[in-house]
Amino acid sequence: MRRRQHVNPLAYEFEILHGQAPQLATDRKLEIEIGCADAQFLFERAQRCPDRQYIGFEVRKSIVDEVNARANGTIPVEAVFCNANHHLRKMLPDNSTARVYLNFPDPWFKRRHHKRRVITTDLAKDLYAVLEADGHLLIQTDIWAIAIEAMDVFERLDSLYHNCATPWTFWKRANPYGAKSWREAYCERNQRKVWRLLYHVIK
Fold first, then answer.
1. Which of 51, 65, 94, 106 is catalytic?
2. What is the pLDDT of residue 116?
3. Full-prediction pTM beyond 0.85?
4. Nearest Cα to 4, choosing from 62, 86, 88?
5. Rounded to the nearest 10 degrees, how much is the dihedral formed by the CA atoms of 129, 132, 135, 137?
């Protein structure tokens, strides 16, 4: 059963780091998802490529607990309770991450709530820091306004990120990583348009 459980990521309680930095495997490539929700995308990635480590950052503690219970220490997926906009650099060392996923971030439709949206220039710079050379970033959304805002953020950092399509262009092909979040599967079933951006870091 799907649940909508919004929290205000700008609330003071989320400025304080409650979770602990994950233990990184020295012999596995790392993939992370910002705002992983139930981590269905990461579980599918783990099924396809079990030799990698998968970490999801999520601001809702109850969902973090559910993800970790599902992984049960036997699947290389872990959820971490934190606000990535504040704490990503405290959670991960620089150049530690092979891939970053931003799948269908909350749109926060009301104008007064736009400041709660996760994709910001500061986050993009933090992601660049933790991505390794040759690392990749995938953004997916079915909300046009979010797609355009994300493109604007990352295209203005063209000294850091190379658009794998062409500059100021969406990725026209399918999701290249063979895993689907609940929202992507929903969009596919209901023939909703999904906009994708795929970037390669320049280091």
1. 106
2. 57
3. yes
4. 62
5. -30
